[in-house]
Design a protein that fits this description.
8 strands, globular
């Protein structure tokens, strides 16, 4: 049985005061069965130590990116060694905003994923198609290419530390959520790909979470889908409604 997974991606938001308030008023009040749901939140790097020191123990801390290079003369980067050194268990990689604004290709995402896993981090690996790709009928090809670039870098065993986040780019931050059926179709495709490429054990163990305008209003319907194991939440993760999204996963059958 897969544990549900709910990630809160805070992106480049929140002053320290706002982060403190979010932790105190929402995150530390979350009530859920940690045997059933895993919850992780991703603040900006600079807020991580404060968050680690003040967050309830059932909620894990993630970062939103890590460098393609290890420690060294790479001004402005934060390496997987730094992430690990701080005891941060999770990193989000391949988010569409990284792909779109910072030139992260499938190949770069694959290599970053490998580097993170080689340093014992767990990875939320994001995939998803743009609107034009969906409209031209290329959704599954795009996602397959994104997954293949990751698979090329990993051993089969390393997939045990990967959560795949399906995030259709047209749904991110737009208020346009994929319908439960649209999400399920792609999740089923990803699950089938995992089976054919990596075997039934990886297929059955890997969490596939959905992201893209998830709110407290649509979470309960989405989570009913067979191949949907949780959420990666952006905008709604900054608000009290995040508690309802976690509650939807906690209640799901
Ligand atoms: P959103 O973002 O929930 O604001 O659409 C999701 C994400 O980017 O992970």
């Amino acid at each position: 049985m897969r544990r549900y997974f709910v990630g809160g991606n805070w992106k480049c938001n929140n002053t320290i005061a706002q982060t403190q308030s979010l932790i105190n008023t929402v995150i530390n009040k979350l009530v859920f069965d940690a045997n059933k749901v895993e919850v992780a939140v991703a603040p900006i790097f600079l807020h991580v130590p404060w968050v680690q020191a003040n967050i309830q123990k059932n909620v894990q801390v993630a970062v939103q990116n890590s460098s393609l290079t290890k420690m060294g003369a790479y001004t402005g980067e934060i390496s997987v060694e730094h992430v690990k050194d701080l005891g941060i268990p999770w990193v989000i990689l391949g988010h569409s905003e990284r792909r779109q604004y910072y030139g992260e290709s499938n190949e770069i995402v694959g290599k970053k994923t490998r580097l993170a896993l080689d340093h014992q981090l767990s990875v939320m690996a994001c995939v998803g198609e743009k609107l034009a790709e969906r409209e031209s009928g290329n959704t599954t090809q795009v996602i397959q290419a994104q997954l293949e670039a990751i698979k090329k870098e990993l051993t089969t065993e390393q997939w045990s530390k990967v959560v795949v986040a399906y995030e259709p780019v047209w749904a991110i931050g737009t208020g346009k959520t994929a319908s439960p059926e649209q999400a399920q179709d792609v999740h089923a495709f990803i699950r089938g790909w995992l089976r054919s490429q990596l075997g039934t054990q990886v297929e059955q163990a890997t969490r596939i979470i959905y992201g893209g305008s998830v709110t407290e209003k649509n979470a309960a319907d989405l989570i009913k889908q067979q191949d949907l194991d949780g959420f990666l939440v952006g905008g709604a993760a900054l608000k009290p409604g995040f508690a309802d999204i976690v509650a939807a996963a906690n209640k799901a059958q």
